[in-house]
Amino acid sequence: MTALGLLEGRVAIIAGAGRGIGASLSTVFAQQGAKVVAVDVDSQRAREISESVDASGGTAMGICADLRDPDAVTSIVEQTVASFGAIDALVNNAGGSFAYVGRKPITRYTEQDWDDILERNLRYVFLMSRAVVPVMARGDGGTIVNISSTLGIYGSALMVAYGAAKAGVNNLTRSLAVEFGPSGIRVNSLSLGHIEVPAGKGAPDDGSASALPLRRFGSPDEVAQVAAFLASDLASYVTGADITLDGGASALNVFTLSHTSALSAG
After folding, report:
1. Measured distance between the N- and C-terminal CA atoms of the chain, rounded to whole angstroms
2. Which of 36, 110, 151, 182 gets the highest tally of CB atoms within 10 A of its CB?
3. 210/48 Cα distance (integer angstroms)
4. CA angle 163, 193, 198 (to 5 degrees)
5. Cross-strand partners of 195
6. CA separation (Å) from 202 to 43, 98, 138?
7. Of 100, 124, 154, 162, which one is the catalytic site residue?
8. Cα 27–Cα 169–Cα 212 angle in degrees, nearest 5
9. Does 162 participate in catalysis according to the annotation?
10. Which residues pair with 64 in a beta bridge?
């Protein structure tokens, strides 16, 4: 897929670009021909991924910003337009839960825990989307890809705020697709299951990969390749969609899941 040039000449903002899935998104989008604006709250990570893209023959600009700050979000858009003249794609990949709150019952959540997770996973998607759609609408349209989670589709104990935030992302995706479709702006989401990412950001290595139909966890590059497809003209009639990347986990029902080990043995 890296040789196709699906995004040649386009400008893409990657929010949460510094490591893991974000680093893969930055690399793959650049390989596909996009000029990448790599945004991360950590200045060193933003600089390192932009330098990595440049060293590989791509074009990138690193920006350090706290996406919870509306003024910082406005500045990202202004810097992007000033440097590259347009915004064709936005990938909202920032967020998380393990590193900020972890897993715990709702009776141990504080109000600050709840607000923090929703700010990091839902509020910033609203802020970034609100900031880029006027720019996209002035041109030939654009695409937004929101990185979500299967926890926004199915219930999960001990991560109620994260699940609620990702459910909000999924509905925001559909609503924006309806609102801005007439302006040529497509909005889709990717609901991720088990993806192997840096410590504290993804699924625990507890052997549960054997319970998945594909018998393995996904990789950040696999996420980035689907995101690049959604941002390209190959997906020109895809909007308001949520695509699950979970190795087939959502295809399992409770009965099947409880018998996975027997199926594997047989």
Report:
1. 35
2. 36
3. 35
4. 95
5. 218
6. 22, 8, 37
7. 162
8. 70
9. yes
10. 40
Q: How far is CA 222 from the centre of its chain?
A: 12
Q: Give whole-number Cα distances, 60 to 11, 49, 195, 260, in Å.
A: 10, 8, 25, 44
Residue 168 CA from chain centroid, whole number: 14
pLDDT score of 231? 98
* Class of domain 11-206+217-249 as given by CATH: alpha beta
Token pair belonging to 16: 């949460």
Rounded to whole angstroms, the Cα distance separating 172 from 52 reads 32
Alpha helical stretches, state H, 119-249: 124-138, 160-180, 220-231
Alpha-carbon 173 to chain mean position: 12
Spatial separation of the C-alpha atoms in residues 74 and 80, rounded to whole Å? 10
Q: How far apart are alpha carbons 33 and 10 in whole angstroms?
A: 7
In whole angstroms, give the CA distance from residue 75 to residue 63. 10
Could you give the C-alpha distances from 181 to 6, 169, 197, 218, in angstroms and in order?
A: 21, 17, 33, 31
**Which two three-digit tokens encode residue 2?**
């890296």
Amino acid symbol at 180: F
Q: What's the pLDDT tens digit per position in 12-63?
A: 999 999 999 999 999 999 999 999 999 999 999 999 999 999 999 999 999 9
With a CB cutoff of 8 Å and minimum separation 6, the contacts of 133 are 142, 144, 176, 180, 183, 185
